[in-house]
Amino acid sequence: MSTEVSERVADTPAAIQASPAAAVSDADLLPPPRHIAIIMDGNGRWARERGLPRIKGHEQGAASVRAVTEGCAELGVGYLTVFAFSTENWKRPKEETDALMGLLEQFIGQELPGLMKNRIRLRAIGRTHDLPPNCRKALQDAIDATAQNDRMTLILALSYSGRSELIDAVRALCREALRGELNPDDIDTARISSALDTRDFPDPDLLIRTSGEMRLSNFLLWQLSYTEIYVTEKLWPDFGKDDLRDAIAAFHKRERRFGGI
Ligand code: FPP
Fold it and tell me: In ligand 1, which atom is closest to the CA atom of 83?
């Protein structure tokens, strides 16, 4: 860990560094977090370290999504949300956004049999209408095909940002109020939660961020209010099932008070 990162860790009590898992991890013994959210960072660095094009890092990152999804299902996690493409990612060179969209379409097609076999439901959050038509179709087909699966829900955040989600929710609530169907005084936490893309899912218990950065990067800003944050130096393409167990073991050591004492 660099000195700069160590200092940032010391300044950020909610974020802790990864520690090696014990032989039998708490992840095996205690109930898993109900919902895990992941900021999958470091694909570009992983590729650069190997002298490879960035897309190779994303491809390897897609393999990590597969492994971690499987790991979550095996451990009994109910919901897994992965930040696959942010609204800000559209600013990347077209070559990279095209490649990411192609990879996404391919990933969905390849994963569908496994999602069905493992009874995993696929859902998406974000401005998915921004995605290219082929991608949107592959996504919608997989969402429809997996709708009845009941073991775990995999949520892809695509063209997503917490602020754009909140903007869309505020607009929807204002429209309801203008139609006379909503009294602004009735707007409370539950009403806002039910206007968000995540309305069908519980808030995440654990947020994992790879590659050592201590930022939320506009991810699930409302939903992460009481979420435990776990940051590991590992780059996303190197993150696997054992790292998932380490993160869950660290989560079990936290004391969650939700603002109480
Ligand atoms: C961050 O790495 C990662 C992304 C912008 C996209 C995440 C995408 C994947 C894991 C692969 C595709 C996902 C699916 C679901 C098929 P970065 O490029 O910002 O890395 P860097 O910070 O090292 O440059």
Answer: 7
Domain range summary for the chain, segments of one domain joined by +: 31-161+203-226+243-252
Sheet strands side by side (includes 206-209): 15-16, 228-231, 206-209, 35-39, 79-86, 152-160, 120-125
Alpha carbon distance 67, 59 (integer Å): 13
Q: Which residues approach ligand 1 with their CB closer than 6 A?
A: 40-45, 58, 61-62, 65, 84-85, 89, 103-104, 107, 156, 236
pLDDT at 5 (0 to 100): 37
pLDDT for 153-198, tens place per residue?
999 999 999 999 999 999 999 999 999 999 999 999 999 999 999 9
Q: Give the pLDDT confidence of 78-105 residue by residue, as tens digits.
A: 999 999 999 999 999 999 999 999 999 9
The third-level CATH classification (topology) of the domain covering 31-161+203-226+243-252 is: Undecaprenyl pyrophosphate synthetase (3.40.1180)
Look at ligand 1, atom 3, and give the residue with the nearest C-alpha. Answer: 41
Burial of 240 (0-12, 13-18, 19+ CB in 10 A): middle
d(CA 95, CA 229): 33
- DSSP classification of residue 238: G
Among 43, 125, 214, say which to mutate for ligand 1: greatest number of ligand atoms within 8 Å of CB.
Answer: 43
What pLDDT score does 26 carry? 63
For the residues 193-205, what does the mean pLDDT come to? Answer: 98
